[in-house]
User: Fold this.
Amino acid sequence: MITNNRMKTGAAAVAIIYILVQTFQWWVFEKVPDTGNTINDFLSGGNNLNIYRSWLMLLSMFGLLYLFFTICFEDFTQNKGWRILAFSGFFIFCFLELFIRSIELFFVQGYLVDTYATANTEDRAIIIKTVISIQQLWWALYFPLGLSQLLASSILAGLYLKSTGIDRLIKVIFIINGCRLFIRMLDSYLHIDILGISTLLNDELYLPLVIIMFGLKAIWLVKKARLIM
Assistant:
């Protein structure tokens, strides 16, 4: 065994904290919504609420890495190769998220917003072009980011496909996550949005799905740690 009961309990706590962080992010998006105007949305990134949101999401990636490690290696006596492969997918996901969110927080919301405030008209135009280019880079990076998590989720769902008892929870979690990511990537990169499902999943149902999936992860981890019957 690589993990122990204390690690599982800690990972369950991380799952709950992540739900709180995502809830705060949803609240910030409600308070400071996107307007569709590139300049206004760029400048609103310097809002204190957005800065706090970015910090929390950035730090959360370290917690998620710990959470995924604990889940992947909860039982390392079987399917070792598949578990290592699954964790590798989650590691790539967390690494790319850290990369993207670091650029967002320190370069865009920090340096570029501050520079824009004192820049002349010509320099401001250059800054906005830079922001647009960075957004396109993020969009490109979200392909390997989403694909790596999709593959990792599919592997874990497959490993627990014939599971019984409490392990059925983790199977359901990663089947839901895999389907969500697949639908999202179809829409984002192939422009296929079947019956508007992608929009529904990524807008109205995004936070409820986070609460459900990470809440179930917390329950599963606590159960596996034998803290409750």
Notes: The two ends are 21 Å apart (CA to CA). Residues 150 and 181 are 6 Å apart (CA to CA). The chain is about 80% helix and 0% strand.
